[in-house]
Amino acid sequence: MNRKRCNTSPEPSTSRKMQHVPVNCNISDEFIESLLCESEESSADEEDCIQSDCGNSSSEEDKENEEPVLPTPAASYLSESSNDDIPLSSLVSRANSQERETSRQVNEPETVVSSDEPRHKKYFYGKRRCMKWSAEGPSRTTRTPAHNIVVPSTATDFPPDSSSSQLFGLLISESIKNKIISFTNQRLEMTREKYKRRNKPELKNIDALELDAFIGLLIFSAVFKSNDEDINALFATDGTGRDIFRAVMSKERFAMILLSLRFDDASTRDQRKQTDVATAISDIFSEFIANCQKYYKIEETTTIDEMLVSFRGRCRWKKYMPNKPCKYGLEIKCLTDSATGYLYNAYLYTGKNSDGNGLTEEEKKLLVPTQCVLRLAKPIMRTNRNITADNYFSSIEVCLELKKNGLTYVGTLKKNKREIPPEFLDKKREVHSTMYGFTKELTLLSYVPKKKKTVQMISSMHHEESIDSTKSIPEIISFYNATKGGVDSLDEKCAKYTCARRSRRWPLVIFFRILDVAAANTFIISNYNSTKRMEFMKDLGRRLVKITTGSNQQSTEILKFETLKNCYMCFKQKRRRTHYGCTVCGQPVCLQCSKPTCNNCR
């Protein structure tokens, strides 16, 4: 018997054919009996019929035992039925489907929200649900997290009244100077073999005093902004040159030292180059970095970035970086103090796989930027310090690896990272709007600084939605802006007062950058607030050259020839022959035509 709408059937039927109900149906017997009773009752209008179907036939106790969501779909099926006949099996099947759908929604642990309101979601997911972010930050107490309590530095203290040259000598140590002197003299010995007059004063060996004087002149060339000036102009005697240069050494001697500077043993270089392509300067560079770490107490925040040293010569690991002012050069990966720009750790980038030198086999399997960060962060691990870097180094991987080693990380993220939820990349959001995603250890921030632009930030240091009241921007962005410029600050110091002269020898270019960084670091560890940097550089150069000023470092050795030669002064008159020669010009001169002088009058 077919059931029709209540308002079209004044007299309901008194008989009904029983339909077969599937055995595997989950509908209770009481619910089926209530449906049968409802079909036999009369109803005056549609409202009474619906109210009757909603459960008036059942008792209050049955309502409490029943599923609260089941009568509603059944009633809706009865009230919305068309003039066509509806079989009981179809009715029960549709009710059973609605019951399963309702049961699935009740058991679902998460609330599904429309994509039109992403900020009200409880969770966000990255691409292909690779990572889950919570919209609410983890509950924390008012105490400072343990990973933000910095361990004090154990750097060696130096006397507070140390002069600029003494502090400079801590970084360019005696060990470094001795290596340079030894290898430079080795080169000078090879150069002397090419000359007939091997006793020329500009060909003599170099010592520690003369090396200090040479470095002092390079410092003065940085002060005078004359590092690119021709040597002939620096040593000019027509009043346009620099008196300090002529007072320290001759032009020929300065040029010879500049040409002969060496930093490794040339006889074993080819063998060492098989494992280290930068072996010509790597030992000096590594020792200098160790000295920088030994005498400085680094602050709580550090910065990692690259530094490009201008170079146009031939080098297998020369790089092209169009965003840098010099475009071509040698790359140095640096870790500096964010507040002062003090260079604390660095290494030379010598090509593929050079970032993983010194790391374990497991660490070498990580991303290349992650290897770079771990290598630079070795000296400060387990100190709870923070590292700030740009989007080249930033990833979820590097944050978690640093977290294992007792460090925090703050940086910008590239938009192609698959861990970023699509909602965070929406450019149609309001200007200055923010979205946060949290995990137990990380915080993801999406900020809209201007129209149609989003900035993605990652931090393992911040764990709440906080705003910098002074700048009205998120605290993570404010912290990043305050700590991101450590390496840029050092690069600016080196560019302002640089002693780098033009050269096609890349080891010499790296040595010039070592001197620039040493001067900048010395200025930082000294009481640099009490004086200007230019005055500091002048004082440093003056102290390095003061021992040799006015002496020209002339040789005190007596020049002798193996065979007798005619005196060039009395050759035409008396034809004297002599074994001696002038120590200045090298010409043969007899004792009658020369004058003995003491060391104070030379």
TrEMBL record:
Residues 164-523 form the PiggyBac transposable element-derived protein domain. Pfam families: DDE_Tnp_1_7. Residues 1-22, 37-118 are annotated as: Disordered. Residues 38-50 have a biased composition (Acidic residues). InterPro entries: PGBD. Residues 7-16, 104-114 have a biased composition (Polar residues). This is PiggyBac transposable element-derived protein domain-containing protein. It comes from Euphydryas editha (Edith's checkerspot).
